[in-house]
């Protein structure tokens, strides 16, 4: 047994909310739309821009979650024949990844349902680059190389959304807003994903050979490139469809961009990847403190 891995999901069944726990009937209430407009754009009369921004960001996150879940299932399946070494002994790693993957499927489902309920619109992404992003992971690299690359890219986005969850939990401690509830539902599972990512940093990375670390780096770079393309094309499409530019004069969008770039610098380091809080510069910490009341991103 691997106690570190085993403990991550030990009480997952007690710290989990099914999407049916969301107050779906209140997602689009007038009071909630005002609240979102205030939180996103800093004023109450920007409902359309605020909700269009959330549509874009949460749809994009859902697409990344579908990819993470799909590749993780592939890693588990491939580990049957190719999962060599101590890390694959017993069922702890398979269990941790199985929980991770299934939770990401539910997150993607929940985020899509949320943005469609919120806006009353059902805009499908014209290109989600799913095939291209999956193809990257179809080669014969070892399952641990694929796992490490996948976690490195997921960890950046997971760290960014954690900052938004911390902000909303401070703004709305009683979780009256369905949006706060959404981020809380997501964050319950994300806390375990972050611990899994940290396990990968501490225990999977050191097990890779120099060649495998270069393969991981290539997979990370190619995935990041496609994720950036996804971000740019989905923003352009949704600006056209909603008829508003939701990225200008939008404090959330500005902070999101700044911390995404800062987190990439902190986390992605050539043939390695690192815990975000260990490598943040002082300007980014000050920005986090101002935006979310906490200069730390993760507490586990
Ligand atoms: Fe997620
Ligand atoms: Fe996650």
Automatic annotation (TrEMBL):
InterPro entries registered for this protein in UniProt: AurF/CmlI, Ferritin-like_SF, RNR-like
GO MF term (any one): oxidoreductase activity
Domain of life of the organism encoding this protein: Bacteria
Descriptive protein name: Uncharacterized protein
Gene3D superfamilies: Ribonucleotide Reductase, subunit A (1.10.620.20)
Pfam families: AurF
């Amino acid at each position: 047994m691997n106690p570190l891995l085993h403990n991550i999901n030990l009480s997952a069944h007690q710290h989990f909310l099914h999407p049916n726990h969301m107050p779906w009937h209140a997602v689009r209430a007038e009071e909630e739309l005002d609240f979102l407009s205030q939180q996103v754009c800093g004023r109450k009369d920007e409902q359309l821009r605020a909700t269009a921004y959330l549509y874009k960001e949460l749809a994009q996150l859902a697409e990344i979650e579908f990819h993470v879940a799909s590749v993780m299932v592939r890693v588990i399946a491939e580990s049957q024949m190719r999962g060599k070494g101590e890390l694959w002994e017993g069922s702890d790693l398979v269990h941790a990844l199985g929980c991770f993957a299934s939770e990401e499927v539910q997150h993607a489902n929940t985020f899509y349902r949320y943005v469609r309920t919120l806006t009353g619109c059902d805009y499908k992404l014209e290109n989600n680059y799913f095939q291209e992003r999956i193809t990257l992971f179809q080669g014969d690299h070892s399952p641990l190389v694929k796992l490490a690359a996948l976690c490195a890219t997921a960890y950046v986005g997971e760290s960014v959304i954690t900052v938004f969850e911390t902000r909303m939990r401070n703004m709305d401690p009683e979780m009256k807003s369905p949006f706060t509830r959404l981020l809380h539902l997501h964050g319950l599972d994300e806390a375990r994903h972050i611990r899994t990512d940290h396990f990968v940093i501490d225990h999977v990375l050191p097990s890779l050979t120099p060649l495998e670390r270069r393969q991981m780096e290539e997979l990370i770079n190619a995935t990041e490139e496609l994720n950036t393309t996804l971000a740019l094309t989905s923003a352009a499409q949704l600006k056209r469809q909603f008829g508003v530019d939701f990225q200008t004069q939008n404090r959330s969008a500005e902070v999101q961009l700044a911390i995404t770039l800062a987190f990439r610098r902190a986390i992605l380091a050539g043939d390695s990847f690192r815990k975000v809080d260990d490598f943040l510069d002082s300007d980014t910490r000050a920005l986090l403190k101002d935006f979310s009341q906490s200069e730390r991103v993760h507490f586990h």
